Every structure is written in C-alpha cells, then in structure tokens.
Amino acid sequence: MTYTVAVVSAGLSQPSSTRLLADRLAEAVRAQVKEAGGEVLVEVVELRPLAHALADNLVTGFPPPELEAAIAAVTSADALVAVTPVFTASYAGLFKTFFDVLDKDALAGKPTLVAATAGTARHSLVLEHALRPLFSYLRAVVVPTAVFAATEDFGDTTSGQLQERIDRAAGELAALLAPSTVRRAPAPDPFEEVTPFEELLRGNG
Fold this sequence. Notes:
Blueprint: E1 2-9, H1 17-35, E2 39-46, H2 51-60, H3 65-76, E3 79-87, E4 90-91, H4 93-100, E5 111-118, H5 126-137, E6 141-142, E7 147-150, H6 151-155, H7 161-177, H8 197-204
Parallel strand pairs: 1-2, 1-3, 3-5, 5-6, 5-7
Antiparallel strand pairs: 3-4
Helix pairs in contact: 1-7
C-alpha cells in the first residue's frame, strides 16, 4: 500500500539544517515502511517561498494559489513531519503562521512527527513546551519521540545519537501510518525467566 507523508520545513537559509533534518526524517520513514512492504510518497512543503503568500492570507483571509496547494498537500497527506528552526526559545514565526492558516480540523487524527533545529542543545526543550502543545491543540496524533538537532549533531559522525533518534521517531510514525505492515519486535515477557520461590527462600536463608 502507498502512503503520503507531507514534510513541512520552515528553514530560512538555503541550504538549511532544518531542511536537512526534514529530509533525513522523511527518508527514515520511507525506509521503514518500505522494509515492511509498503511505499511512501513524500510531499515537501518549504515555507520560505510562501512567506508573502502567508502574509496575504492573514490579511485577506484567502490563500494565494501556491499557498492553497501547500495547504492541500498537508491536509490530504496520511502523515505529517513538521520541522522548524528555533528562534527566541520557540518555533519560527513562519512555521506558526502556516499552521495558523490551516482549518482547525485539518490535522485532527493525523499521525505527526515534530522536530526542531538550533545552534545549541540548550533549546531542546522547545519540542515539549512549544511544538508538542501546538499539535496537541490541533488534535494531531504526535509520536512519543520528538527529534532535536543542534549544530554539533550534524558534525557528529561517531556516536550516531542523532540517527538513533531519527530512526526511533520514524519507526513510531511508520507504526501509526501503516500499523498492519510495519513489523515491531514483540515486547519481552517479564515473566519468562522467573526465579522459583524455593530458590528465593534458600537465598534468604
């Protein structure tokens, strides 16, 4: 089965670390669904070229054609990956403006992965105090693992911690997106190896 994933990137520079993280997340989701026999079509929505259209929409209440197409891509997608740079300890204004112009029910029930980039790891809590509340308010189904990448994470080629977070979050989104096709390892049985009661008594004696 084929699923569509909309990737919203609010990076302001070209190239941007925000878009780089967005692409890595999308590829991880695609790989995990493909491994289980499904297919993913990725629709990237770059917000930087839509800045004027977003301002026009706020003033007039009507989206220009290019913004209307972006809104339709996000609304019709089976899942969403939303990535923003951090400014003044919160999401970018451009990022928030895009989700402000969506219909209030546009993301209801939609599997969503949130991520952010910043120059320092001190901003990592933005995922929990800004991004997660925003998408919870919009009634999206946000995966448990959010991904934060500081500048040094992109240069870390030894620990692989960023890629581990990407893969874990992508797996959670893939499981929501295609629960019948994504294979998950069974949870270990906590009672599989139980010490006999007699042995416990002998140990205490």
